[in-house]
Design brief:
- This protein is of the alpha+beta class.
- The chain has a domain of about 210 residues: Thymidylate synthase/dCMP hydroxymethylase domain (Thymidylate Synthase, Chain A, 2-Layer Sandwich), CATH 3.30.572.
- It is about 35% helix and about 20% strand.
- It has 10 helices and 10 strands.
Length: about 300
């Protein structure tokens, strides 16, 4: 077993995995897989030195997390734009719906191929409902108008950075039944202190093995992008978790990962400052010094 080094931010994540494994409550969950879980967890990361907490004790597909974030910021709710970029992390939900509603046990790869190539098929079966992108960029008001929460946050950061109301979230209760999956990372709050931009994210449900490394990477990218746009330096990222769980079919990951020693956190360079937060492309991001220790396969519980 490794000796954790407090100087390395990744130690917080490894300690969290150990706590859940050793002290978590055994539960049967919505997916039927079963979990061990703790309620109410926190991690804090300092991004002011240019590093980002993209974990190294297993390979994190950070470009996938980045493409997903850019898609969400665009207001996207259809998996078509993701699968065209070989991002398949959202495929399981519409694929499950298609199989249940049509009785066609289509192969996953064929389903993705049809979503990417067939406009009508993508419109009918690639849609996830009013998920993150819809709520962030086009929250539906009672009068039928829409509200762009992200643009409002940018405007406040530029014009009223001391505000305690620089928040966006996705928990739109009337829309929840129409979503393929209700938002897990659901509330974000920005705060400015001493010329640095800080971000808090609250996550109601946390898949610590598969989801959380992506979520932390995504929040890090978001913090850097927004700081770049509003001419502030990056500060701290604080993560809060509600139901923070380890699926019963993921214990093999811990057996490998907790025997690995974290490498230094990589540095993130933004190669271009576009005119808008919504104009970044994956090629604008350069990760320097990322040395992961190998991929560990784990199944998604849906």
């Amino acid at each position: 077993m490794i000796t954790l080094n407090p100087a390395n931010a990744e130690h917080q994540y490894l300690e969290l995995l150990k706590r859940i494994r050793d002290r978590g409550d055994a539960r049967m969950d919505r997916t039927g897989v079963g979990t061990r879980a703790l309620f109410g967890e926190m991690m804090k990361f300092d991004l002011s030195d240019g590093t980002v907490p993209i974990f190294t004790t297993k390979k994190v597909l950070w470009k996938v997390a980045l493409k997903e974030l850019i898609w969400m910021l665009s207001g996207g709710t259809n998996i078509r734009e993701l699968v065209k970029q070989n991002v398949t992390i959202w495929t399981d939900w519409p694929l499950k719906r298609y199989r249940e509603e049509t009785g066609d046990e289509i192969d996953r790869k064929e389903f993705e191929r049809r979503v990417a190539k067939d406009d009508a098929f993508a419109a009918a079966w690639g849609e996830l409902g009013p998920v993150y992108g819809s709520q962030w960029r086009a929250w539906q008001a009672p009068d039928g108008s829409t509200y762009d929460q992200i643009s409002d946050c940018i405007e406040q950061l530029r014009n009223n950075p001391a505000s305690r109301r620089i928040i966006f979230h996705g928990w739109n209760v009337p829309d929840l039944p129409s979503m393929a999956l209700p938002p897990c990372h659901l509330l974000y709050q920005f705060g400015v202190s001493a010329g640095k931009l800080n971000l808090i994210m609250y996550q109601r449900s946390v898949d610590t093995v598969l989801g959380l490394p992506f979520n932390i990477a995504s929040c890090s990218f978001l913090l850097r992008m927004v700081a770049d746009q509003v001419d502030l330096q990056p500060g701290t990222l604080t993560w809060f978790g509600g139901d923070t769980h380890l699926y019963d079919n993921h214990h093999h990951v811990l057996d490998v990962q907790l025997d690995r020693t974290p490498n230094a956190a990589p540095k993130l360079n933004l190669l271009r400052k576009p005119g808008s937060l919504f104009d970044y492309v994956p090629e604008d991001f350069e990760l320097v010094g990322y040395e992961p220790q190998g991929f560990i396969k784990a199944d998604v519980a849906i």
